[in-house]
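User: I'm putting together a teaching handout on how sequence relates to shape, and I'd like one worked example. Could you take Bypass of forespore C C-terminal domain-containing protein from Desulforamulus hydrothermalis Lam5 = DSM 18033, show the sequence you're using, and then write out its predicted structure as tokens right after it?

Assistant: Happy to. First the sequence, then the structure tokens directly below it.
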Amino acid sequence: MLLRFVWIAAGGVMGAVLLGILIMGGRVQQADSGAVLSVLQVFAQQVQATLPADFVIKEEKIYLCGDSEETARKTAASLGIKTARELQDAYNGSEYTTEIFKDQALVKQKVNDFCSYHRSFRHLGIHNNYLAVYQGPLGYQHKLLKVERSFPMSSLSAAFQVKLQQAMEYHRMTPETQAKLRYELEFANEEALNAILENLDEMQD
């Protein structure tokens, strides 16, 4: 009889403990849910925050060469934008990134072109084992202009081949090597490039 009473008492204690755990777990879960809800509410308020009419929106273009250029300064009123959400929707293309600050926003647009300064640049490199001409400064092989079929790599001197290979890995070279490559393989315009191509044998010496 006494043993039975002990077992019943132990069962009651265990039940109370389990009930307490369930209650506390529910409170913790409820507290966590409340915290998450509060964060979402704050985020929603930020997105829907009203922008002042004179809120400045600066537009920049980011070119292939890495240079940037401010192209416009507008206000929220001039674009008919009233909230941060509307601002993000106005520049929702994959080429845009938007940074919103207290009194202004910076909208960056990546463009598939070189800046006005580097657009006329040309440099030599390699394409399919041939001498090739690329637009822009060294280190940016985004735009292949032409392949010099009359100059396969095998027809070039070993030293010149090494320079061309270094040009294709320009950003991995030391500053000293980069400076030498710019001096020999980078040109300010098409005319300077053609002058070198016409005397390529002398350039390889």
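A couple of points you could highlight for students: The radius of gyration is 33 Å. The chain has seven helices and eight strands.
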